[in-house]
User: Fold Thioredoxin from Auraticoccus cholistanensis.
Amino acid sequence: MATTELTAENFTSTITENDIVLVDFWADWCQPCKRFGPVYEKASNANPDITFAKLDTEANQDVAAGLGITSIPTVMAFREGVLVFNQAGALNGAQLDQVITAVKELDMEAVHAEVKAARQQESAAE
Assistant:
């Protein structure tokens, strides 16, 4: 399955309109990013039920900065619109497979409850 190229225009809609989205934050000058690319592509082909996306941090600096990307490659996983994984550094194939399995197995009812509780706590603190 081909990866989706993310931009400021389609980032939010891609995250909210797909159940599971993995995002590879990269740049053309980044050698670890180039080594991670084939690993990411292989996982994309093996998991057609997941949306695999890439965001060029050079072309989309505002998006990357807004998400706190300070090191690349960074992989983020979103499930049902919730950020559930965020790690800088290239993963090998086995590590990426572990992330994918963990994201698929998440109890999203519990995750949504945790997010709701955290938001309520933040509101109460203001």
In short: Helices lie at 11-17, 31-46, 61-66, 93-105, 108-125. The mean pLDDT is 94. The longest strand covers residues 20-26. The radius of gyration is 15 Å.
